[in-house]
Amino acid sequence: MAVEAPAKYVYDFDDDDDNQPLVFKRNNTSSSKHNQLNSEIKKASSQRSDGQSGRQASDVRAPNGQSSSAQKNNTIPSSKSPLVKSPILSPKASTSSAKASPVTNLKASTSLNDQSKQASKQNISTAVEEEKSPIKGITETNSDDDDDLKPLSARLKGTSNQSNKGASNSHTDQSQRLVPKIEVKGSAEDPDDDAPLSARFNMKSNTGTSSSKPYDSDEKKPLASKIQQNGSTMKDKQQKSSMLPGKRPLDKGNSSYQSSAKKPKISDTPTTMKSLQVMVKAEKADEDDDHIPIAQRMKKSTPSDSKTSSMKQKATKVVSSSFKKINKKSKKELKNSKYIKSTKVLPSSGDGQKKWSTLVHNGVIFPPPYKPHGVKMLYDGQPVDLTPEQEEVATMFAVMKDTDYMSKTQFKKNFWEDWSKLLGKKHTIKKLDRCDFSPIYEWHLQEKEKKKQMSSEEKKALKEDKLKQEEKYMWAIVDGVKEKVGNFRVEPPGLFRGRGEHPKMGKLKRRIRPNDITINIGKDAPIPECPIPGERWKDIKHDNTVTWLAFWNDPINPKEFKYVFLAASSSLKGQSDKEKYEKARMLKDYIKNIRAAYTKDFTTKDVMKQQIAVATYLIDKLALRAGNEKDDDEADTVGCCTLKVGNVECIPPNKLKFDFLGKDSIQYVNTVEVELPVYKAIGRFQTGKSKSDDLFDKLDTSKLNAHLKELMPGLTAKVFRTYNASITLDEMLNKETKDGDVAEKVVTYQHANKEVAIICNHQRSISKSHSAQMSRLTEKITELKGDLKELKTDLDRAKKGKPPLKDADGKRKRNLAPEALEKKIAQTNAKIEKMERDMQTKEDLKTVALGTSKINYLDPRITVAWCKRHEVPIEKIFNKSLLAKFAWAMDVDPEFRF
DNA sequence: GACGTGACTTGATCACATATGA
DNA sequence: TCATATGTGATCAAGTCACGTC
């Protein structure tokens, strides 16, 4: 290979661098354990009017046919199941597929729900009454008259500004961020006391382009709206360092089946789902009644497929009690059907509680071994020989040429430390800055191009081949139900891409091998065949109190783990999702008292109590994360409890400016007006400290969460984020949805979604082509406006009986009637309007990520119910995977409110 | 109570697929 | 038909929080 001068891709890295009890106390909160919480949640939810507490998705199916509900009563379906639509389909979709129109479905659903509505309402009031005064020591006051119960709404005014990520973002970018403004709502009465801060603030962008025009005029916006084992040399070392830490296995004495008689010979191990079925059946047959999956026992308590909708509703309501009623009939049913689909909600989810009874899966799939390409990199301009191991790591580095990591000294330092170990002391390569990886990078580009140039048939064949190889790893059978596995692929080796200024970025993430991996599987299930001949799993466990199928120690941080879990659409995940939202809904009943209590503590003499009060206030009002302590070998980011003095600036008379790096090193910049006692308290916490000192020096997340649990069972800091996000969506949708077509309603939804994303500070980097796209749109609009002008002239002339003027090229235009011209003008106007609206949306959302909140914070029942009420096809809001993830929420009552 | 471990959720980003428009 | 925009799923890093141990 020709030697090139190392002109461009050369590194200059030098490896030489080297008082009183808490007011909130409750009677019996000494142990607010999960069980207690679960029962509280169940109680609360059963008292609410969602019309589906504890309910599983009926026969609502995700379009991919993979949601667990879709598998109900099925034998194991093929992964290529036909798409089946949800019952709240778009009219378009339903006309092609079903007899009943979606409207019909909606209506039916509504009337059905209407029946239960009244009862539900009664239930709500009962629930509220029962839960109204959960906090001991807080006297119920007339909320409307008590300023304390309106900690912010009545007194705040401010501007906030959430800025862009990391130091890499320009100041300009920051100034262009959406900047919510928080304002006072003047009303003395505050019927929205349950609402989050945002519901009462007026958050506006301080940049003209950022605020969406259609909404700016609305002063009554809800909350948001206003605010290796890599070769033998490392083997021993790694085995030592990756020894399984003292886990809490259920069956300690039986941890390793690797050498036990139970381990089948490789040839005996089932490798297809078909064989999995057989094994599950065998497993089931051996079980006595107690071991029948509760999900299946539940199955028996709900009528079969032929049940009417109303029966489904009834079944829904008795789900929790049905957990207890295990009846023999279910066992019979179980035996009679191959794979009885569980109802959507699994029985237990508390820590240490049984999560499954039988679990069968095929383990994990490993990335293919490294194939050396033989392209020689250059050292001092000369090609150098590398072993395949050395070349592999060099290639990992070379392909990152175009990334920001290449400008980071830490990245290169860490890479060199690890790579030089692989090279050995006698290797020609002594310094990274004399290396030229260009040839490998060029090779990489060529490979990419080759791949791109493949015909669609070739691509398809490759895809099918991959699917064939992976098929058996994609599914697990949990309590007899086929469920999708999430991340069944073992992470390939690479260079660690820590975010922000992560001290370990660039370190080699070595290849994970079978003996790094611990498998968790049902006791009677066959142990998955190790896919690499001659190797074996590290350990086999049968722990049914956890949901992971496999784990290995993170090679970058060996004390941490990488888990293989079921996919988001699985029943287990759905169950915990639902519990999360129920907990957040429960907070709604407590929030008034919690706010009153922390407001009183702003001025208490006990500094720790003061700090707890102020921190809770910030978490509630600004949706800050809790902020756990971090080690030195992690990126230097903070949350509420770990805020430094220098992260908060007091701006008289009562504004606070927050500026810190949060999760993922995303910058949070926000100036907000706060209540005077909060402002003063922050000032006191800062006094006598340096900028790098902890603002809340008497506080950490465990103290804070322990305190929160005294206020509400199961309450932790993160519940506030879910609560604020969901209630904001609920209120905005309710207030802002107007009559109009579906497109307009979808815009309303997006707007609400955007406000939530702003509250949660969900950012995304501006797309590289953003400015080009904007200029293109501007050009088009200008062009259309020109056309419009011409059309108007032509219309004037046509009305006077004159022919149209010639066009820009001097050609004669068609002589059109005034009516035709008027029609054209209207069409052009509509086009311009649409383009301007698109442009506005694009600008508004250029740094806001909507997806995260939709996936993690917004109770899907709010969305589904809203879609039902306003006849918006759910597919307009949820994509295929969200439909599968939220299958449990699809049969919600249209009148559901968060 | 501090600390470490373990299990889970949350989150930004990237590559690829699909839609859209010239 | 091709180029570009947009949507989607996968990936894996980085959080939260419960619990065990000392």
From TrEMBL:
<keyword id="KW-0539">Nucleus</keyword>
<dbReference type="InterPro" id="IPR051062">
    <property type="entry name" value="Topoisomerase_IB"/>
</dbReference>
<dbReference type="GO" id="GO:0005730">
    <property type="term" value="C:nucleolus"/>
</dbReference>
<feature type="compositionally biased region" description="Polar residues">
    <location>
        <begin position="158"/>
        <end position="177"/>
    </location>
</feature>
<feature type="coiled-coil region">
    <location>
        <begin position="774"/>
        <end position="845"/>
    </location>
</feature>
<dbReference type="GO" id="GO:0006265">
    <property type="term" value="P:DNA topological change"/>
</dbReference>
<dbReference type="GO" id="GO:0007059">
    <property type="term" value="P:chromosome segregation"/>
</dbReference>
<keyword id="KW-0799">Topoisomerase</keyword>
<dbReference type="Pfam" id="PF01028">
    <property type="entry name" value="Topoisom_I"/>
</dbReference>
<feature type="compositionally biased region" description="Polar residues">
    <location>
        <begin position="26"/>
        <end position="39"/>
    </location>
</feature>
<feature type="compositionally biased region" description="Low complexity">
    <location>
        <begin position="301"/>
        <end position="322"/>
    </location>
</feature>
<feature type="coiled-coil region">
    <location>
        <begin position="445"/>
        <end position="472"/>
    </location>
</feature>
<dbReference type="InterPro" id="IPR013499">
    <property type="entry name" value="TopoI_euk"/>
</dbReference>
<dbReference type="GO" id="GO:0003677">
    <property type="term" value="F:DNA binding"/>
</dbReference>
<dbReference type="Pfam" id="PF14370">
    <property type="entry name" value="Topo_C_assoc"/>
</dbReference>
<dbReference type="InterPro" id="IPR013030">
    <property type="entry name" value="DNA_topo_DNA_db_N_dom2"/>
</dbReference>
<feature type="domain" description="DNA topoisomerase I eukaryotic-type">
    <location>
        <begin position="495"/>
        <end position="871"/>
    </location>
</feature>
<keyword id="KW-0597">Phosphoprotein</keyword>
<protein>
    <recommendedName>
        <fullName>DNA topoisomerase I</fullName>
        <ecNumber>5.6.2.1</ecNumber>
    </recommendedName>
</protein>
<feature type="compositionally biased region" description="Low complexity">
    <location>
        <begin position="90"/>
        <end position="102"/>
    </location>
</feature>
<dbReference type="InterPro" id="IPR011010">
    <property type="entry name" value="DNA_brk_join_enz"/>
</dbReference>
<dbReference type="GO" id="GO:0006260">
    <property type="term" value="P:DNA replication"/>
</dbReference>
<keyword id="KW-0413">Isomerase</keyword>
<feature type="compositionally biased region" description="Low complexity">
    <location>
        <begin position="44"/>
        <end position="57"/>
    </location>
</feature>
<feature type="compositionally biased region" description="Polar residues">
    <location>
        <begin position="103"/>
        <end position="126"/>
    </location>
</feature>
<feature type="compositionally biased region" description="Polar residues">
    <location>
        <begin position="64"/>
        <end position="81"/>
    </location>
</feature>
<comment type="function">
    <text>Releases the supercoiling and torsional tension of DNA introduced during the DNA replication and transcription by transiently cleaving and rejoining one strand of the DNA duplex. Introduces a single-strand break via transesterification at the specific target site 5'-[CT]CCTTp site in duplex DNA. The scissile phosphodiester is attacked by the catalytic tyrosine of the enzyme, resulting in the formation of a DNA-(3'-phosphotyrosyl)-enzyme intermediate and the expulsion of a 5'-OH DNA strand. The free DNA strand then undergoes passage around the unbroken strand thus removing DNA supercoils.</text>
</comment>
<dbReference type="Pfam" id="PF02919">
    <property type="entry name" value="Topoisom_I_N"/>
</dbReference>
<dbReference type="InterPro" id="IPR014711">
    <property type="entry name" value="TopoI_cat_a-hlx-sub_euk"/>
</dbReference>
<dbReference type="InterPro" id="IPR014727">
    <property type="entry name" value="TopoI_cat_a/b-sub_euk"/>
</dbReference>
<keyword id="KW-0175">Coiled coil</keyword>
<feature type="active site" description="O-(3'-phospho-DNA)-tyrosine intermediate">
    <location>
        <position position="857"/>
    </location>
</feature>
<dbReference type="InterPro" id="IPR013034">
    <property type="entry name" value="DNA_topo_DNA_db_N_dom1"/>
</dbReference>
<dbReference type="InterPro" id="IPR036202">
    <property type="entry name" value="TopoI_DNA-bd_euk_N_sf"/>
</dbReference>
<dbReference type="GO" id="GO:0005694">
    <property type="term" value="C:chromosome"/>
</dbReference>
<keyword id="KW-0238">DNA-binding</keyword>
<dbReference type="InterPro" id="IPR018521">
    <property type="entry name" value="TopoIB_AS"/>
</dbReference>
<comment type="similarity">
    <text>Belongs to the type IB topoisomerase family.</text>
</comment>
<dbReference type="InterPro" id="IPR001631">
    <property type="entry name" value="TopoI"/>
</dbReference>
<dbReference type="InterPro" id="IPR008336">
    <property type="entry name" value="TopoI_DNA-bd_euk"/>
</dbReference>
<feature type="compositionally biased region" description="Polar residues">
    <location>
        <begin position="203"/>
        <end position="214"/>
    </location>
</feature>
<dbReference type="InterPro" id="IPR013500">
    <property type="entry name" value="TopoI_cat_euk"/>
</dbReference>
